[in-house]
Design brief:
This protein is 26% helix and 26% strand. The protein is α+β, with helices and mostly antiparallel strands and 774 residues long. The N terminus is likely disordered.
Length: 774
């Protein structure tokens, strides 16, 4: 499908010289502070995040490397402009999971018809591959960039041992196809044409293809190794029994059935073992993505956080990075390895690497992906302690609202409904980019859209395959929601007061798990976009202007709905918005929540924004779309004083620190661990990590940060006998109490973390014996 047409916006101006930028900055700060504080007072809280403007430009590696050396480019996303070579002195880098590499055996060949033949062909293919910068041979689908690497560590070591020291067997060389730039480099001159005979295909798959990118929140297991292994390897299973077993194990894990950590760890190990057993699609290794940024003393950036799988193209980078010369504002310039190709719409767009980064700045989801592990961290909704309740049958109040599948109408659930979980959220509202204020109607309409366009259709109606896939978990789990009340929260910073509107929303779910954080991510009450924009997009889809997702666009033979770069689509959206605005249109699902006057005001705000900005990409995120061309995009900060998050909100993730097992001792009833921890030592604008022993706990005063120790105890038959985590301290050592185990020999897998950073852990293996006795 062709890319959306470029805007007629003129070429973007170059970054102004330092003197001019400094004058503009001081003026902007004075105006901003004067609007909210008395004269002579500096504003003590800055909503949104550090840069006042982000310029994103598609650049080839050569020019990007040159600009990083001179400090005129702050970061390069999506690739390594230095080709894996040594970095210049004024450039630093972060590492993340760049790609999976898998081998799929041709089932039509004699070797492909038997398990033994497939396993042998896969092993030969693995041993025949060459080298490439960043490539790590790793015959397992779970990598050090997955939090459940620890649970699979012994299995990974066993599979590595099978291939160590084994050379290519004699015989005719394999005919290998190669798909993807990394795969072509690994296969080299042995690659055969796509239309010729072949024995196996080597392909690389970016983890971004497995992650959500638009306005829908993914499931809690989105970044889990076992879940990504299922998505990678299950499609290659042609054996019906193997596929059924793998799918049943996956459903068990995603249904929350394993309530104990040991049970969940065992189920994840069994799933991966089943996926690998038939050797139909086998993991070869993974690529480490290295992304560079300028650390130059004056013109560089600092406080850089990144995601273990998305890298710098993540929510955390734009929420932490700050310019050294302009710590509270400034112009951040980012290079991208490719142009933005995916459509810009929050219901089914932003799916390419450039789009994922743009959405990280424009969108503001309820929760953010945990950068150094799996699961989610709080962003715009919070769940207070004790606000998650589970039970076999929790009564659901009659006035609880539930969206009807296929229509999206919000109906009361009535008498007699029960749930297995109830989650109470505090929703931190703010203004949208069109200056309208978020209300409970916006929250409710997000549920309605998901049910209408993703739900089953008894007859003709609205539907989008992409929305159906993205919302499957939330629609399946949501029994209903209700707004309990709307609270006002006041925060005082020095002599300035900020007031926030916080609806309190109850959500009832069909499933209960032992993980409260996971339950909070199933169907949180939130909307990234205002309800009039969602209603406008819906009407545009009905009239054939475009479809939300690329899959639905292909099915219907229409364009992929674009809210900014397609001039023809903008003209059609303008006409529909004028029509709906003149009617004071209120979607049927919101009749009880929105009156005529409010509807007129909301439509007027949306239309005024589009007229001024030249697009309809309205969100409540920290940055807004300002200008764009074929190769560059400018995002400007949205400093709304009802926005509850400000500079420093996520600084705990930058830079990530690690902890290490220095020594482990097995005693009769416990394991004791001596730990080393990393401390960040700063000097002027530079910093370094210092590894040192965990300090003794003081008798009084502030306690140092205690690392968390995760452990998995493996029995003699390879089963998971115990699993858990602890921060218990005794005599300056971490203490693990795995519980009562049967007599026998065990292996404990141990890993430590600081600040929830579980990336690339140093795993310790401790063998010990449990003797019979009381």
């Amino acid at each position: 499908m062709p890319a959306p047409a470029a805007s007629s916006v003129p070429a973007l101006p170059a970054m102004p010289p330092v003197s001019q930028r400094l004058a503009v900055l001081l003026g902007a700060l004075a105006l901003r502070a004067g609007a909210s504080a008395e004269a002579g007072h500096e504003l003590p809280f800055y909503p949104s995040f550090y840069p006042q403007e982000i310029r994103v430009e598609a650049l080839e590696p050569g020019p990007a490397a040159a600009q990083l050396r001179t400090g005129t480019l702050h970061a390069y996303l999506g690739g390594d402009p230095f080709g894996g070579g040594r970095l210049p002195a004024n450039v630093a880098a972060v590492e993340s999971l760049g790609a999976f590499v898998v081998v799929t055996v041709n089932p039509a060949t004699p070797a492909g018809r038997t398990r033994e033949g497939r396993c042998e062909t896969s092993s030969r293919a693995v041993r025949s591959l060459g080298a490439a910068p960043g490539f790590v041979a790793h015959p397992y689908p779970i990598t050090p960039f997955h939090r459940d690497f620890l649970e699979n560590y012994d299995l990974i070591q066993a599979r590595r041992a099978e291939l160590t020291g084994v050379r290519e067997l004699p015989g005719a060389p394999l005919r290998l196809r190669a798909r993807g730039a990394l795969a072509r480099r690994l296969v080299g001159s042995r690659a055969v044409a796509e239309n010729g005979p072949w024995d196996a295909v080597v392909e690389d798959i970016e983890p971004g293809e497995l992650l959500m990118a638009n306005g829908w929140l993914g499931p809690p297991w989105l970044k889990s190794g076992w879940a990504q292994a299922h998505r990678l390897l299950a499609p290659g299973l042609t054996d019906a029994a193997a596929r059924k077993d793998a799918d049943l194990l996956f459903q068990r894990l995603t249904s929350g059935a394993p309530t104990e950590r040991a049970e969940a760890a065992e189920a994840g190990r069994r799933l991966v073992t089943r996926l690998l057993a038939e050797c139909e699609r086998m993991p070869v290794g993974y690529a480490v993505r290295r992304e560079a940024y300028s650390s130059e003393f004056s013109q560089g950036i600092e406080n850089v956080a990144h995601d273990s799988q998305a890298g710098l193209a993540s929510h955390l980078f734009v929420r932490t990075a700050k310019l050294k010369d302009f710590p509270w504002n400034g112009w951040l310039r980012v290079g991208m390895a490719g142009r933005a190709q995916a459509a810009w719409n929050p219901l089914g767009g932003f799916g390419d690497p450039a789009g994922r980064f743009l959405w990280a700045a424009l969108g503001d989801p309820a929760l953010l992906p945990a950068p150094g592990g799996e699961g989610w961290i709080g962003n715009r909704v919070t769940v207070p302690p004790g606000a998650v309740e589970t039970a076999p049958a929790i009564p659901v109040p009659e006035d609880t609202l539930a969206p009807e599948a296929g229509t999206g109408l919000l109906r009361e659930v009535g008498k007699g409904r029960t749930a297995r979980a109830r989650v109470t959220y505090r929703v931190w509202t703010s203004a949208f980019h069109d200056n309208s204020r978020m209300t409970p109607a916006d929250i409710a309409y997000a549920y309605s859209v998901a049910a209408r366009w993703g739900g089953s259709r008894p007859g003709p109606g609205d539907h989008d395959a992409g929305v159906e896939a993205a919302t499957a978990l939330a629609r399946g789990e949501l029994i209903g929601f209700r707004v309990l009340r709307v609270e006002t929260e006041v925060r005082k910073y020095s002599d300035v007061t900020f007031t926030y509107v916080v609806p309190v929303v109850e959500v009832y779910l069909a499933t209960a798990t032992g993980d409260a954080d996971a339950l909070a991510a199933y169907a949180p009450p939130w909307s990234v976009t205002p309800w009039p924009l969602l209603a406008l997009m819906e009407e545009a889809a009905r009239r054939g202007v475009g479809a939300f997702s690329p899959a639905e666009a292909r099915r219907r033979g229409v364009r992929w709905l674009e809210l900014a770069r397609d001039a023809r689509a903008r003209a059609q959206l303008n006409a529909i918005a004028a029509e709906l605005g003149a009617q004071g249109h209120v979607p049927p699902a919101l009749k009880r929540m929105v009156n005529a006057d409010e509807a007129q005001t909301r439509w007027a705000s949306l239309r005024a924004f589009a007229q001024k900005r030249g697009h309809y990409l309205v969100t409540n995120g920290p940055y807004q779309l300002d200008k764009w061309t074929d190769t560059a995009v400018v995002l400007s900060v949205f400093r709304d004083f009802t926005y509850p998050l400000g500079v420093g909100s996520f600084d705990r993730f930058a830079p990530p620190r690690r902890a290490y097992v220095a020594r482990a001792t097995a005693l009769a009833d416990r394991l004791e661990i001596e730990a080393d921890v990393e401390r960040v030592e700063k000097f002027l604008r530079d910093w370094r990590r210092v590894r040192e022993p965990l300090a003794p706990l003081p008798v009084s005063g502030d306690r140092p940060e205690i690392p968390v120790c995760r452990y998995v105890v493996i029995g003699g038959a390879g089963e998971v006998a115990a699993a858990g985590s602890t921060s218990e301290m005794m005599n300056n050592r971490l203490v693990i109490r795995p519980g009562r185990l049967k007599p026998g020999t065990y292996t404990a897998l141990l890993a430590l973390a600081l600040g929830d950073n579980w990336v690339n852990p140093e795993v310790a293996m401790v063998k010990y014996r449990v003797d019979p006795g009381p």
